[in-house]
Specification:
The protein is an alpha+beta fold. It has helices spanning 5-11, 38-47, and strands at 21-27, 50-56, 63-70. The chain is globular, with a radius of gyration of 12 Å.
Length: 76
Amino acid sequence: MQGFELNMLKASVKMLNQVSIIHTEVSLSDTYEGAPLYAELREWLLQNGFIVRMEAIPKGSDMGNVLFINKNLETI
């Protein structure tokens, strides 16, 4: 999906209440044209019922991975 994750999630909002976990790569700086930065993706997911369970962003890196959990379906 390389940079299209947030658009896909927004198009799938009706399904999100059935999703327990989202694991995605994130960018802290502009890597792909038009791709949202981590802060925007995180804020949107927080507003849609998810919490950050784990961030794996190496110090000094502008990319990493984040695990989001649906707080209404949290089992981990």
